[in-house]
Amino acid sequence: MKRFVKSSKPQWWLAALPLAVVLVGLAFSSALRAQSVTVLSTSPSNGATNAPTSTNSSHNIVTGTAVSATFSVPMNPATIDSSTAGSLLTFTLQDSSGNNIQGTVAMNAADTVATFTPTASALNTNQSYKAAITTAAESAGGIAIPDPVQWSFSTGNTPTTGQAPVSLGTAGAFAILTKTGITDVYASSITGAVGTSPITGAALLLRCSEVSGMVYTVDAAGPLPCSITSPTLLTAAIGDMGLAYTDAAGRLIPDFTELGAGEIGGLTLAPGLYKWGSGVSISTNVTLLGGPNDVWIFQIAGTLKQASATRVTLAGGAVPKNIFWQAGGVVSIGTTAHFEGVLLAKTMIAVKTGASANSRLFAQTAVTLQQNAITEPAQ
Fold it and tell me: Residues 222, 196, 359, CA angle at the centre, nearest 5°?
């Protein structure tokens, strides 16, 4: 009979296992540290021309064009980040005169992309810029970039804007929308739907023959036979009108502040975000020059007053649906004047005798008409 004897000798491979694990770990750590750090790509790319002067974040905050670099390995954010403008100079941007552009630097979630965002709302037009990353930038493994990285690009000669249009939601179905009614000196001509809420339909004084579109009221007291009772639809539209006003008023980093001390008559206005801490006057004709996708947003803390017989003129393909006038005070469009764009008024919109507008008139109080022609902008 064979006898099986248990061996008392240690298994050599079991004893060697911890050492092997340590050696593999050290080898992996050394390999990680030995990885070279390079910049794989940049935006704008080196030598790019006609780069935009501004970009828009997902929150409708427009800044100068963001400049980014993509690294070959995850980086140590502490060697690149700059949450305060100008506090860390690892990643810089300079104009053609060698002036540093103020801005902040942040990494993406994977720590592989660094983005320099200018503090200003736009870079200059027709300008050359040089971006640079110094050897202070280190990988997560502590390896510095072996050599400084530099690249250059230039902006176009036409200002660009990243402003997104103001979302009107369900209010966008209306040419005139108010909370406290619409008065009228007969006869006006309205192309598009009109509505008023929460006030009774008796406060909507347009006749059916004056409106080429639907007439909505919260009750059966509206003009007959065209009035449609639809309180639910109107509640939603009035809510969206308020959201649109808040959106327009809340846009940040304006391209122009206090332009003309509030007098914009005689000017030609480029696309962008404009802001005034008081009222705005249009005493003579004003021109908005830009393309069909360009956006103008005018933030006016006080009143907006357009003089009689003056015109807001669009040029270069600009369209009224992308023009937004947000006013905290009363809006007045003078006798026989012509207006363009979406009006978002905190109070009343008063359209004087014979005036016309390619516009949406959204008032959080009333709209008053006097033999006017109001045409909703094409979508």
Answer: 120
